[in-house]
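In response to the reviewer comment on reproducibility (Comment 2.3), we provide here a single inverse folding case reported in full, input and output, so that an independent group could reproduce the run without further information from us. The C-alpha cells appear first.
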C-alpha cells in the first residue's frame, strides 16, 4: 500500500513540475518558502547564469538567511528589526557589487503577491529582458500561471525547478509532502479564477 502511495505522489509531482534548463539570463528570481529554493538560486548565481539574483523573502525565511552563501555584510535581520513581523516580506537583490533590500506588500495569496511585486519591480528595471524563475517542482505550475498572466510579455522566462529528492527535502515526511501536492491541485484552479477576475 505504501508503494502505491509513493507512485501516486510521484505521478502527481510529474504533472505539476516544470523543469526547464537554465540559460544565460539577466536575472535569477527565487520565490519565498523552502530553504532549498534559495540554496539552488545561489548556486545558479555563483555559476554565473545571471549577474543579478533576486530572493523573495517571507517573514519565516529570515531566520535561515545567515546559513546562505551570501556576502558577510548581507544582514537582512538587522533591516527587519524595524518592521512589524506580519509585514516582513522583502526582495533581496544581490550582485557582484553588493546587496539591497526592498519591502513588498503581501496580500492573502502569497505566490500571487510575489509575482505582482516582481511585475512592479520589472517596471522599474526595464534593462531586464530575461529571467530564470526558481521554485520547488510541485509549485512551478502555479508559478508559471501567475508569471504568464502578470509579467511583461517581452521578458523571456525560464522555469527552473529545484532538483531535489521530493521525498527527502529538508527532513519533511512523505505525508507532509502529499499535503503540499494535494493543495496545489486545489490552488491551481483557484488561482486561474483569481487571475481571470484580475483582468476584468
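Designed residues, in position order:
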Amino acid at each position: 500500500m505504501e508503494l502505491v502511495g509513493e507512485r501516486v505522489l510521484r505521478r502527481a509531482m510529474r504533472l505539476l513540475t516544470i523543469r526547464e534548463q537554465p540559460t544565460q539570463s539577466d536575472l535569477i528570481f527565487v520565490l519565498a518558502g523552502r530553504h532549498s529554493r534559495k540554496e539552488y538560486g545561489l548556486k545558479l548565481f555563483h555559476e554565473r547564469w545571471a549577474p543579478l539574483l533576486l530572493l523573495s523573502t517571507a517573514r519565516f525565511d529570515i531566520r535561515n538567511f545567515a546559513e546562505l552563501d551570501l556576502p558577510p555584510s548581507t544582514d537582512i535581520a538587522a533591516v527587519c528589526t524595524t518592521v512589524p513581523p506580519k509585514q516582513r516580506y522583502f526582495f533581496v537583490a544581490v550582485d557582484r557589487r553588493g546587496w539591497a533590500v526592498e519591502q513588498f506588500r503581501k496580500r492573502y495569496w502569497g505566490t500571487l503577491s510575489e509575482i505582482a511585486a516582481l511585475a512592479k519591480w520589472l517596471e522599474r528595471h526595464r534593462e531586464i529582458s530575461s529571467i530564470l524563475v526558481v521554485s520547488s517542482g510541485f509549485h512551478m505550475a502555479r508559478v508559471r500561471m501567475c508569471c504568464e498572466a502578470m509579467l511583461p510579455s517581452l521578458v523571456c522566462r525560464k522555469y527552473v525547478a529545484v532538483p531535489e529528492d521530493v521525498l527527502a527535502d529538508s527532513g519533511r515526511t512523505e505525508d507532509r509532502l502529499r499535503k503540499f501536492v494535494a493543495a496545489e491541485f486545489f490552488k491551481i484552479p483557484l488561482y486561474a479564477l483569481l487571475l481571470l477576475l484580475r483582468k476584468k
